[in-house]
Write a structure and sequence with these properties.
It is elongated, with a radius of gyration of 28 Å. The protein has 13 helices and 17 strands. The chain has two domains: about 200 residues, Rossmann fold; about 210 residues, Glycogen Phosphorylase B (Rossmann fold), CATH 3.40.50.2000. The longest helix is centred in the C-terminal third of the chain and has 18 residues. The strands form five sheets. The protein has a seven-stranded parallel sheet with strand order 3-2-1-6-7-8-9, sandwiched between helices. The protein has a three-stranded parallel sheet with strand order 10-11-12, sandwiched between helices. Strands 13-14-15 form a three-stranded parallel sheet, with helices on both faces. By secondary structure, the protein is an alpha/beta fold. Helix 7 links the parallel strand 11 and strand 12. GO terms for molecular function: glycosyltransferase activity.
Length: about 425
């Protein structure tokens, strides 16, 4: 499938918010192996491309902006009636003829503000002329600013900013604007759609996190846990897996656990990983719910510290059942990124810092000053984990910060927007 994005950009300056919206839509399409075709003004310099705009899979097609060798200067027509400049229709015809050629082999055309903005009025008319020769081509018209009221008295061609085009869906970023959008273009609300602006958190991360994202879904899990540490039994990785299993099994939550691990001389990594996975599975996780960053060849000896901090900005639950800690810096790191904290109450350092951070406490085996403690759960460890899993998920749901952080990551991710809003229109 080929999908054209008709922007008529003269440049790709990221300070122009629409450039960022288009960049995210390009990422969505390329991730789903859809070929995007970027339609920009012939005056747009491609030498300034950066980031996703450099991807070789994008086809760039420049739309003519000359009439008889002279540059077409766009004029801002926002009025409902009046006169257009002398060469207006000639310019529109030239652009329309070029659009027919540039859109001949695409399956759908997404337009950004072409029908709305007064300075794109010439392209509004040109697209309508081109559409007459491309009757089977589906158009999706995005409006990114608040819809305007329909004038009472209008004359052609100025009615183009307030009238529908055949085989076109009209899109606005929020549901609240749909009634006004429908009125502006004089279409039924059934021909209008909502496509929210997305939050592409991954675009702000390091290469390490981007690499990890190719292996693990960072966006859709309702509970995302990141646990960094040396792969030693003293860090009690299996207890993290067990509690996460109880959350998934008893609270009907999707769960992903990412262990940012590095080797230890205490125990063979492969042996301990198998034990951790078997423990998680026995309490309710599936094997694919657990991932060790050391399984990525580039990070077999450890995941970058910056990457761990970035992952904490994605995760929403931090569990530290460690047997012994002198301080617990990762607790502070997780807290600083807005994670719900669950700490081992029996470890003095974790109890001390946890009380300062208003953490939630559970009891696991621990080393104290001069002696060790060993927990016995009645009637069983499974029952103990079930009880606390339910309390933890309820507290996370009621916590406004945790709720909004989780919702922003899941509901407004490019993946969610693409699958649930944009792709169905194509």
């Amino acid at each position: 499938m080929k999908v054209a994005l008709l922007t008529m950009f003269n440049g790709l300056d990221s300070t122009y918010s629409l450039v960022n919206v288009v960049a995210e839509q390009l990422r969505m399409m390329l991730h789903d192996e859809i070929t995007p075709v970027m339609l920009v003004s012939e005056d747009c310099s491609l030498d300034t491309r950066y980031g996703i705009f450099l991807d070789d899979r994008i086809e760039w097609r420049k739309v003519v902006n000359r009439l008889n060798g002279k540059q077409i200067h766009w004029r801002d027509y926002t009025q409902a009636n009046g006169k257009v400049h002398d060469t207006f229709y000639q310019e529109a015809d030239v652009i329309a003829d070029d659009l027919v050629k540039k859109l001949a082999d695409v399956d759908a055309c997404i337009m950004h503000d072409i029908h709305y903005q007064g300075w794109h009025f010439i392209h509004n008319i040109a697209v309508r002329k081109a559409q007459e020769k491309l009757p089977d081509l589906k158009f999706i018209a995005f409006t990114h600013s608040a819809p305007v009221n329909r004038p009472q008295n209008m004359e052609w061609p100025f009615t183009a900013r307030f009238s529908p085009m055949p085989n076109t869906l009209y899109v606005y970023p929020t549901q609240s604007g749909i009634p006004a959008l429908a009125k502006q273009y004089d279409v039924p609300e059934g021909l209008c759609r909502v496509v929210n602006n997305s939050l592409d958190l991954l675009s702000y991360t390091s290469d390490a996190v981007k690499t990890l994202a190719n292996e693990v879904d960072l966006f859709s899990p309702e509970i995302l846990v990141v646990y960094p540490g040396r792969l030693t039994q003293g860090k009690k990785f299996e207890k993290v897996a067990a509690l996460c299993g109880a959350i998934k099994k008893n609270c009907e939550k999707t769960v992903q656990v990412i262990f940012c691990d590095f080797p230890s001389g205490d125990i063979a990594s492969g042996k301990y990983k198998k034990f951790i996975k078997s423990t998680g599975i026995s309490f309710g996780l599936d094997e694919e719910d657990m991932f060790f960053t050391s399984d990525i060849e580039a990070y077999k000896n450890g995941f970058p510290r910056q990457g761990v901090l970035e992952l904490f900005s994605f995760s929403n639950l931090f569990i530290c059942p460690s047997f012994s800690e002198s301080f617990g810096l990762t607790v502070l790191e997780a807290a600083s990124k807005g994670n719900f904290l669950v700490l081992n109450e029996r470890v003095p350092a974790l109890e001390e810092i946890g009380k300062q951070l208003n953490a939630y406490f559970m009891k696991w085996d621990a080393r104290n000053f001069g002696y060790d403690t060993h927990e016995k759960y009645q009637p069983s460890e499974a029952a103990y984990l079930k009880e606390h899993a339910e309390i933890i998920t309820n507290l996370m749901r009621e916590n406004q910060i945790i709720h909004s952080k989780t919702k922003a990551r899941i509901r407004y991710s490019p993946q969610w927007i693409w699958v649930n809003q944009l792709k169905p229109m194509l």
